[in-house]
Amino acid sequence: MKVDLFYITNYLVILQPYLFIVKKLLTLLLFCSLSLLSIAQVQSLKVKGVILDSVSKTALSYVTVGLQDIKTHVFLKSTLSKDNGGFELSAPAGTHYNLVMAFIGYPSKSIFLKDTTGIIDAGNITLAEAVHKLKEVAIIAQRPIIKQEVDRLVYDVQADPDNKVITALDMIGRVPLLSVDGMDNIQLRGSNKYKILINGRESALMAQNPSDVLKSMPALNIERIEVITTPPSKYDAEGLAGIINIITKRNTDQGYNVSANARYLSIFGPGYNATVTVKEGKFGISAYGGINYQLESATASVISNTQFSPDKIINQNNTELFHGNRSFGNADLSYEIDSLNLITASLQFAHAGFDHGDDQTSRQINSLNNLTQGYQLSNRGYSSNEPIDATINYELGFKNHKNELLTFSYQYSYSPHKQFDNTIFTDRFNYTQSQQPDFYQENTSGSKVNTLQIDYVYPLKKINIELGSKAILRQNFSDFSRYDLDSATNNYLVNNSQTGEFNYQQNVYSFYNAYQVKLNMWVLKGGLRLERTQINAVFTGTPLDRSYNNLIPALAVQRSFTDNSFTFGYTQRIQRPGIAQLNPFVDRTNPNFINTGNPNLNPELDNTFEITYSHHSKGSILVNLNYAFSNNAIQNVTSLTVNNLGNNVKDTITTTTYENLGSNSNLGLNLSGSYPISKKLSVNVNARITHVWLKGAFNGEFYTNDGYTGNANTTLSYVFDSGYRLSLYARYTTGNVTLQGKDPNNFTSTYTVSKNFFNKKVNVAFIAVNPYSRFITLKAYTRTTDFAQTNYLQNYNRYFIVNLNYKFGRLNKDIKKNQRNINNDDIKGQ
């Protein structure tokens, strides 16, 4: 016990013995390789089975199952049953064990195992519900929060005690391999090149700004978060760093259940949401909806841009205004025609509408510190997102082979984004109306996606075979326009040079074949995916017609021991540009600093290798070493553009866009651990350190940049005898290294006090976030051969939350849901 605590304290918190850990991992990899050669000599006992309710014959999930030595009465191995009631345990051979099961509301059950080696299939094991519910059931082992599977890490959100009081975005920041920076951007092993799925499917809700949706969603509605670092071939090949799969609570039973949540944030305002689950006969529905208000807030930012030839400095001070609301919901429906035929459907929708403004002062000075240009700018506008997803699945089972499945799926997704800005200039100095008139601009962009998919699963005794085919028909679009004020007529006239349409048809046709083999203590998962991409695009009269093929391999191997496992993974991934990177619309709301997309971007190809060691006993530890490289990286780059305004007047504009530039490689070490110091006190720590190497040519200049990035967070929880629970959470995130600079660092801390009332039906929590200071200033910098730029952003830092959760109802029988879903993870998350 002391050794475990010392290990966690020294290797997870301090992070200094980096080279020592690498050396240990290489040693462990060698040991793993030697074990491969001696697999035939390894003797162990493997026990599996399925746990059912004795009356309804339905599967019981999260039943605690353990192997108890009959002589010492010590539990050597334990696990929880899965959603289908299945479990699997391995233990050293040569010892007689009792197989013991414990579940709330059911008497514990013990089965003597006669065999001491080999594989024991216990078959269907039934538990009878207690006539009188037990006041307390002795649980053999604490429900594990983290589980390392052969190709992914699984974080059990329902096992996290804070799931009732924090948001989904806060919960993501606690998951190993994931982090959230000071701008609420989600990162997977320090990368923003990943894909987010909801219940295994791409969602239009995540197409524009997933952080906004996840900030509004309570973590209580999430079952688990899967970090798929070696995505199997059934997933689309998109997402260089991997896939984040958020599984929401959808287990509906006979009867009904209602959960309502209300919270108030001292800065941002109130939020309300509710979940309803109903099961009646063969029909079931699980629905969720919520609304969050954003009170008007004002933040400040400063831009300092120093240009070298000729020498001048542009200083801008901005006050940004923002207010609006978000609402969203989803519904999952299921109808069991019979035991072999199942129809499921889902609907997800959201609305986000915000009014925004920017009051800006811009001053340009020369090397003699004389004012050469200046203006006051007032911008007022609005933006809205209204994404929607609709999916229907038909699942066919086979009478003679119950686990053989054929699934047909269709999904329609629509994610429109509207933006309007009206910009007025005053207090002009050497910045005339003819050079830069008052203007307003509009842009309607988004995507429409139709997806057809067929999946077939054929499981054998030790081999699981999967194959399928898919067609994604995606139309990215943008309709943009600008109108300039004519000072002579005082009318707004269309600016044809900044008005146009963009239509980008991208069709992806794919076929995959994957295999999973289980051999005693080994699991092997591998496959191939063939993708054919066809692009047909037209923007401002320029046609684009291209196509390409990709054959994507994926391989993952896991070796399990009594309390440990080693996992090796390799995969190749592709990163297709999304609408935000492709859109040629030029955002000129800040005339000196403009942003635009690049319709000529090519996809990026990435290779990733990883090895993971995980240990689970009283505490848990996970060590992940990974290396990835890409030779055609999509980079965000900034350059100076000189506009000739006539009459020998020139204006220099800073333009930010996207380009395929050179190589991007990184070597990362991730450390995670949790330890129950006592029954009342527990600690959880996650940390990452990554070295990044970037290089590429842009605007005739060759750039190189490298450096370390990382993040660390820890959660300390204590439960008092009175039932109150205190949770302390702290997070530090370094900024990402970019080709031309570095993003800002950030530190945040959260203090939570919560308590359950009325037999755990009501939970009340008070949360204090960063109580030390009201604002925090984030600093980022960019440097090229032509200029150096520093951005300072002041964000709200301190706020308080009051959260109330109430649930009621009674559920008896799980709803049946299909096992295969559409998951469009083939483009870059926006």
Describe the structure.
With 830 residues, the chain is mainly beta. Helix content is 6%, strand content 63%. The protein has 5 helices and 47 strands. The strands form 6 sheets. The protein has a 29-stranded antiparallel beta sheet that branches. A hairpin with a 3-residue loop joins strand 45 and strand 46. The longest helix is centred in the N-terminal third of the chain and has 20 residues, at 18-37. The model is unreliable at 1-42 and 132-141 (pLDDT under 50).
Brief write-up:
The chain has 5 helices and 47 strands. It is mostly beta strands and about 850 residues long.
Name the descriptors.
mainly beta, about 850 residues, 47 strands, disordered N terminus, 6-stranded mixed beta sheet, 29-stranded antiparallel beta sheet, globular, about 5% helix, 5 helices, single chain
Structural class per helix/strand content? Answer: mainly beta
Q: For the CA atoms, what is the radius of gyration?
A: 28 Å
The global form is globular
**Main sheet attributes: strand count, strand direction, barrel closure:** 29 strands, antiparallel
How many DSSP E strands?
A: 47
Spans of at least 5 consecutive residues with low confidence: 1-42, 132-141
Residue share in β-strands: over 45%
